[in-house]
Each structure stands twice: as structure tokens, then as C-alpha cells.
Amino acid sequence: MNDYTEMSVLDMRLPKGKTCGDCIHCTRCKGLFGCKVSNEVCDWCPSRFVEDEEGSVEG
Predict the structure, then answer these.
(1) Residue 6 pLDDT more than 80?
(2) Which residue has the higher pLDDT, 19 or 44?
(3) Are the CB atoms for 46 and 10 separated by under 8 Å?
(4) CA angle 42, 10, 51 (to 5 degrees)
(5) Does 29 score more than 60 pLDDT?
(6) Taking CA atoms, which of 8, 42, 52, 59 is between 20 and 30 Å from 21?
(7) pTM of the shown model
(8) Between the CA of residue 8 and those of 11, 30, 31, 58, what are the distances in Å?
(9) How confident is the model at residue 46 (pLDDT cuts 50, 70, 90)?
(10) Mean pLDDT over residues 13-29, rounded?
(11) pLDDT over threshold 60, residue 41
(12) Domain-wise residue ranges, the chain
């Protein structure tokens, strides 16, 4: 892996213990990319993870 690829992968990891289901963007990403709520890496680079304080995303 080159430096760009390694940095990209690191930028896409979610905070420790968090999954896509914990993000406010999960519903949109499920529709656009078919991502799973159990993913621990964001499909966006850099990650657009924003924790959903309401916990309203369903699996």
C-alpha cells in the first residue's frame, strides 16, 4: 500500500466501538451504497461519521 491508500483507509475507520448504525447518515448510505449497519468503516473518504444521538437507525 502506498501512503495515500493507507491514509484513506485510516480516514474511513469509525470511532472505536461504533458502527454505521450509530451514524446520522446510515439511512442515506444504505440507500446509496447498500451498506450494512454493522460496518465499522465508512464508505466515504474521509469518513462522514456523525454520531446519531437519537439512536433512531434500525438494522
Answers:
(1) no
(2) 19
(3) no
(4) 40
(5) yes
(6) 8
(7) 0.73
(8) 5, 21, 23, 28
(9) confident
(10) 94
(11) yes
(12) 1-59
Residue with cell 460496518: 39
3 and 29 Cβ atoms separated by less than 8 Å = no
Residue in the structure block whose three cell numbers are 466515504: 44
Cβ 21 vs Cβ 38: under 8 Å: yes
Write the single-letter amino acid at 35: C
Tell me the residue length of the chain. Answer: 59
Residue matched to cell numbers 462522514: 48
How far, CA to CA in Å, does 15 sit from each of 1, 23, 27?
22, 11, 19
CA–CA separation, 55 and 24 (whole Å): 8
